[in-house]
Amino acid sequence: MDNKKRDVQYKYNKTAEHYDLRYKNIQNNKIDFFLYMLKRSGIRFKFYTILDIGCGTLTSYEKLNKYFQKTSHYIGIDFSIEMLKYGLSHNINKNFDIKLPSVILADAENLPLKNEVADLVISLTVAQNLPDLTAHLKSILNIIKKNSSIILISFHKSFFSLNEIKSTLMKFSNIDFDYFDVDDIEDYLFVIKFN
Ligand SMILES: C[S@@+](CC[C@H](N)C(=O)[O-])C[C@H]1O[C@@H](n2cnc3c(N)ncnc32)[C@H](O)[C@@H]1O
């Protein structure tokens, strides 16, 4: 792992306890917007294997698990052990959650997963920490199944321009995407599907 990445990991480990207080509502707004868009476009939330890359404190799991099928399996992946630990002890109601999450401590740039395992990939506000956007998208496209699966991904507006993201995505010939630039949401939100 290079020094820059180690610094990012250190920062998230150090601040994990304060993350939810500062960012949970902000991140929840992004998920809410995605859910609203999926509902509006008639996509039912019937995914089986859900991978959340850079899941942090599992805020997406907490928000989404009520939509899961009995057969859904959420897997959160993050390289910050403290973010995962905080999420597992604070954002899961073990009494009521039907389907408990799995978590993997791993680097998003080196995912320990086979190709085409996920029906839904989520990655919220993670890409700014990774050096190569094309490589990040390529690894997501490798792990997702190629029919009726979708990717919900967001990019912080202070780190990316809309044009940069769009032109990177256009390099991939087998996908379609919709994007949303909402005033009070600090990320560009992309829904990516296969054509
Ligand atoms: C801004 S937080 C977003 C967390 C979560 N997606 C959310 O919506 O609350 C960024 C997360 O990405 C993780 N992350 C950054 N670089 C990573 C990498 N190379 N591999 C795995 N996780 C990474 C951090 O540890 C942190 O939990």
CA(first)-CA(last) distance:
35 Å
Q: From the helix content, strand content and strand pairing, which structural class follows? A: alpha/beta
- Per CATH, the superfamily is Vaccinia Virus protein VP39
CATH topology: Rossmann fold
CATH architecture label name? 3-Layer(aba) Sandwich
The CATH class is identified as: Alpha Beta
Radius of gyration: 16 Å
Helical coverage, percent range: 25-40%
Low-pLDDT residue intervals, each spanning 5 or more residues = none
**What's the total count of β strands?**
7
H-E order: HEHEHEEHEHEE
What portion of the residues fall into strands of 2 or more residues?
Answer: 15-25%
Mean pLDDT: 93
The total number of structural domains is 1
SS summary, helix count? 5
Instruction: Name the strands of the widest sheet in spatial order.
Output: 3-2-1-4-5-7-6
Per the principal axes of the C-alpha atoms, what is the gross shape? Answer: globular
Q: Bound compounds, please?
A: S-adenosylmethionine
Describe the sheet with the most strands: 7 strands, mixed
